[in-house]
Amino acid sequence: MTEEARVKVDVVIPVYNEERILEQSVSTLRSFLRDRCPYDWRIVIADNASVDRTLEIAKALAARWPEVTYIHLDQKGRGRALRRAWLESDADVVSYMDVDLSTSLEAFPPLIDSLVKGGYDLAIGSRLKKGAKVTRSLKREIISRCYNLLIKLMFRNKFSDAQCGFKALTRRAVRELVPLVKDQAWFFDSELLLLAERKGYKIFEVPVEWVEDPDTRVKIVSTAWEDIKGLVRMRFSR
After folding, report:
1. Please, which residues bridge with residue 135 across strands?
2. Axis crossing angle, helix 188-198 with helix 220-235, rounded to the nearest 10
3. How many other CB atoms are there within 10 angstroms of residue 25's CB atom?
4. Confidence band of 216 (pLDDT split at 50, 70, 90)
5. What does DSSP say about strands 166-170 and 93-97: parallel, antiparallel, or unpaired?
6. Counting Cβ atoms within 10 Å, is residue 41 exposed (0-12), middle (13-18) or buried (19+)?
7. How confident is the model at residue 197, as a pLDDT?
8. Strand pairing category for 40-48 and 8-15
9. CB-CB neighbours of 117 under 10 Å
């Protein structure tokens, strides 16, 4: 067995009412990982209290493919799903990506390699770093850029894109950082990264190719408002 094959990597996909695309996305991801990921990988579907056939499909996929598994939560919240999936994992590296695969999978190998071989603690996809290619509505572009600028003004952080749904962490970073994150929903990512920088963790950024999903479950304006409230909370807490 090669050294790479000894490294365990979990790829978590948080889902809420995604019966339409779940099977195709997991199949696409599985094929990519079989061809391009030299590590001992596993796909974990984290069902966030779906009320459609999402959980049923997740169970069927886990029964079909041994490298696919699932967990079910009775409450919604992406942060809540990631917290449970990551803290319960015994993998050396944990990651997550959005079920719509809006971020090109070509960015996944360098994301994981930066942690396994590069000495970094966290790795994130960035839609704002030089080299990224992004296709999205003007509304989302403006909101995203304004939000990340606000973070810069409030925290003088070094990372460029807090919200891209494409991240990975070492087991040590998970054990030490995730229990400190208070948010259970969309602000989870931003809070995690700000805590990581505050504590001196090394963050690697990968410029990504990203295409907006017109069927996204994210409510942009309300999510942005919750994120701003989260930033204020963190700014005045130590």
Report:
1. 211
2. 30
3. 20
4. low
5. antiparallel
6. buried
7. 97
8. parallel
9. 11
Q: What is the mean pLDDT of residues 146-169?
A: 96
- b/e code 191-216 from CB counts within 10 Å (16+ = b): bbbbbbbeeebbbbbbbbbbeeeeee
Would you state the pLDDT for residue 139?
86
Q: What is the pLDDT of residue 218?
A: 62
186 CB burial (10 A radius; 0-12, 13-18, 19+): buried
Element (H, E) at 95: strand 93-97
Mean pLDDT to the nearest integer, 210-220: 75
Q: Pick the catalytic residue: 189, 213, 215, 227?
A: 189
Is 47 a residue of the active site?
no
- Going through 146-228 in order, the beta strands assigned E by DSSP cover 166-170, 203-207, 209-211
Beta bridge partners of 73: 48
* Distance of alpha carbon 92 from alpha carbon 71, whole angstroms: 19
Positive or negative, the Cα torsion across 123, 128, 131, 137? positive
Query: Structure pTM?
Result: 0.94
Terminus-to-terminus CA distance in the chain, angstroms?
Answer: 45
Closest CA to 113 of 184, 38, 188: 38
Q: In the block, which residue shows the tokens 């917290």?
A: 83
